[in-house]
């Protein structure tokens, strides 16, 4: 199932990526582009492309461009959305039925190390509720970021999607899940982050839990954590310290000053508590992470 990228989303993307200096310019650019696409579509239909090889090529090219503008919503085994989800005007939270395949899969992902970790059953809190986060606008942004990563030659057609955890601290996870940016690196501390200013996600839920990075829900008395999809691309394995970089005149950069992954990489993995085995995966760009599930659990 797919849906054509919306006019409003195209305006936002042109404006936020700096391609257009103002929202008004972006709106005009998108309007011009849509008008041109409609003219091209009509021209293609008018051509007798079955008898004209050049017209056939033009039609195929147009079909490919249209396909590239469509968003594919989750439809992978147990991780899928209902067909109506793509038409929603606002984000929704759906209770995942306990005992269902989806519930069992999410629960096991929470209990196991994920990302590049491999240890099973490392987190033992009692889960009280799992909610699926359906936010089409945020998924649109994640989807196009994922597609861009796939197209990078070094990634060989794979965005290297991983499941990871994220604790939202004192911020209600629902507020993050309702936005169009999602987990924003700007909420990271300004200084003294081991791997710079980034969005930090955990392979082991115990890290978020023990470090008090989880949100304490005042109405239910439970704690909450997010299970996220991370389009990690090519991951740089790093340790706290300096590394060789072309971004510095001295040729060295400290990991605490990172504002983007090292050259030829899309994300970073590192031990955030040296010697503990708690590894984090870091993103330095917006829309690389989608908060797919809100998980509530007992603190003790």
From TrEMBL:
One of its GO terms (cellular component) is nucleus. Residues 100-263 form the PARP catalytic domain. It comes from the Eukaryota. SUPFAM superfamilies: ADP-ribosylation. GO terms for molecular function: NAD+ poly-ADP-ribosyltransferase activity; NAD+-protein mono-ADP-ribosyltransferase activity. This is PARP catalytic domain-containing protein. It comes from Symbiodinium pilosum (Dinoflagellate).
């Amino acid at each position: 199932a797919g849906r054509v990228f919306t006019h409003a989303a195209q305006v936002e993307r042109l404006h936020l990526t700096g391609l257009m200096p103002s929202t008004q310019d972006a709106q005009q650019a998108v309007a011009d582009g849509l008008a041109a696409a409609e003219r091209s579509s009509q021209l293609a239909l008018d051509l007798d492309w079955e008898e004209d090889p050049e017209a056939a090529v033009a039609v195929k090219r147009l079909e490919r461009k249209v396909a590239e503008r469509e968003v594919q919503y989750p439809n992978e085994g147990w991780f899928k959305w209902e067909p109506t989800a793509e038409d929603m005007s606002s984000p929704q939270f759906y209770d995942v039925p306990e005992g269902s395949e989806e519930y069992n899969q999410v629960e096991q992902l929470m209990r196991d190390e994920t990302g590049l970790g491999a240890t099973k059953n490392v987190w033992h809190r009692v889960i009280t509720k799992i909610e699926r986060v359906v936010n089409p606008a945020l998924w649109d942004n994640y989807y196009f970021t994922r597609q861009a990563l796939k197209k990078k030659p070094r990634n060989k057609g794979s965005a290297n999607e991983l499941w990871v955890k994220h604790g939202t601290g004192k911020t209600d996870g629902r507020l993050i899940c309702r936005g169009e940016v999602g987990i924003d690196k700007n909420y990271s501390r300004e200084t003294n982050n081991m791997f710079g200013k980034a969005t930090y996600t955990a392979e082991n839920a115990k890290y978020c839990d023990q470090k008090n990075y989880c949100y304490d829900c005042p109405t239910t008395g439970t704690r909450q954590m997010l299970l996220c999809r991370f389009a990690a691309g090519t991951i740089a394995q790093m340790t706290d310290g300096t590394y060789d970089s072309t971004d510095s005149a001295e040729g060295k950069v400290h990991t605490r000053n990172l504002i983007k992954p090292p050259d030829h990489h899309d994300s970073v993995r590192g031990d955030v508590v040296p010697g503990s085995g708690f590894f984090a995966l870091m993103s330095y760009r917006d829309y690389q992470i989608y908060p797919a599930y809100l998980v509530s659990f007992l603190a003790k």
